[in-house]
Amino acid sequence: MEPERIEYFRNLLQERINELLGEADRTRNVMTGAGASAFPDPADRATLETDRNFTLRIRDRERKLIAKIREALERIELGTYGVCEICGGPISEKRLMARPVTTMCIACKSRMEDQEKIRGV
């Protein structure tokens, strides 16, 4: 892959990680802020807890995505970004645009998903 495109993906990944970390900070500030649990009504308190649980599930998914982004940034540094970890072939730029953290080309990923369907995973 051309150095300009690698730099484009590095910036894309770095922007995404900064965005996710910002969201995590905002969530932490909202959940620990004053008055966050000042709902005397049980129904309001239940709604608050449901919303908090939902938000925490989202942040957990984002935490996992942050780890994948960091791995992708590491692959950029190592010079292996855009190379399929299964077959060693190039991952298409179109696929990287859709999923910048991917580690497999579309053919290998499709094959893996077909095998998972057969096994019932």
Description:
The protein has four helices and no strands. It is mainly alpha-helical. The chain is 72% helix and 0% strand. The protein has helices at 3-32, 42-78, 93-98, 106-119. It has two domains: 1-81, DksA, coiled-coil domain (Four Helix Bundle (Hemerythrin (Met), subunit A)), CATH 1.20.120; 83-121, no CATH class.
Low-confidence stretches: none
| Amino- and carboxy-terminal Cα gap | 34 Å
Q: Tally the helices.
A: 4
Main sheet?
none
How many discrete structural domains? 2
Beta percentage is: under 5%
Topology order in helix (H) and strand (E) letters: HHHH
Task: Give the structure's gist in a few sentences.
The chain is an all-alpha fold.
Question: What's the structural blueprint in terms of helices and strands?
Answer:
Elements: H1 3-32, H2 42-78, H3 93-98, H4 106-119
Helix pairs in contact: 1-2
Keywords: Cytoplasm, Metal-binding, Zinc, Zinc-finger
GO biological process, one term: regulation of gene expression
Pfam families: DksA_N, zf-dskA_traR
Features:
single chain; mainly alpha; 0% strand
